[in-house]
């Protein structure tokens, strides 16, 4: 599998396993299956409540820790300098590791409607300062953000010493966040795609099915290949080992420029309804 080299020289596998909703005992087996299927890049978060399961699966796989690329994320409701230091230690302890490959601010603002919602600017900058210290102390190999739009990044960059290496966004055919992606490219911030198949909502789309048929691949494979060919690091999720394996083959499909353009110009579809500055709208 190809690696992407981040803006600080750290390499990250271009396909990672998304662990959202892989929780409790089931979560452990799902994550161990993903490792057995070949995933070495695992994407978790404090919010997912499965850092212990990820850590246990990594240890019990018998594969050395250094062969994994592990990402975790700071919960949006614990932004701020002290909170960030404390939350990082909690994540590390649950994962049973002494360093993270990548640590992200999960969302730029606390939950919509909570007390901290309006104080995000200062909270984000203070979290970032704590993360920079952790990185300088060798506890984290790369820092990033998730679900940050240009105005959130502008705020962070006003005081940041380290430019984020990654912005992880919801990205899939029918939801391409072009303005944010272009902004990140200009700043040399790598793009990660969460829900690269739109939580399976876009897999029944007629245009995507027609294009997939033309290449003799599944619509899921087409969505993932599209993500890779767009230059995104993709984080597909699955609970089935056959699909986990299938999803690792996304690099094999080469989509023509014409079909890439057709996918890029699809109308908006399959959006989760989650927006960092607004109340979640269920589509
Ligand atoms: P399942 O867990 O039953 O495999 P996303 O990563 O975009 O959020 O999408 C996750 C959803 O896509 C899950 O519902 C998952 O279902 C489904 N999925 C994952 N891989 C495939 C695949 N190769 N073919 C069809 N559906 C898939």
Describe the protein's architecture and organization:
This protein has 283 residues and is of the alpha/beta class. The chain has a single domain, classed as TIM Barrel. Helices cover 40% and strands 15% of the residues. It contains 10 helices and 10 strands. The protein has helices at residues 24-37, 51-61, 81-95, 120-136, 150-159, 178-186, 206-215, 219-229, 241-248, 257-264, and strands at 3-5, 11-13, 17-18, 41-43, 69-74, 100-105, 140-146, 166-170, 190-194, 233-235. The strands form 2 sheets. An 8-stranded parallel β-sheet has the order 3-4-5-6-7-8-9-10. Helix 4 (120-136) links the parallel strand 6 and strand 7 (140-146). The longest helix is centred in the middle third of the chain and has 17 residues, at 120-136. It is globular, with a radius of gyration of 18 Å. The two termini are 34 Å apart. The mean pLDDT is 96. The protein binds adenosine-2'-5'-diphosphate.
How much helix, percentage-wise, in residues? 25-40%
Uncertain residue ranges: none
> What does the average pLDDT come to?
96
Bound molecules: adenosine-2'-5'-diphosphate
Instruction: Choose one word for the global shape.
Output: globular
Give me the CATH superfamily.
NADP-dependent oxidoreductase domain
The number of distinct helices, counting runs of at least 4 residues, comes to 10
Regarding CATH, which class? Alpha Beta
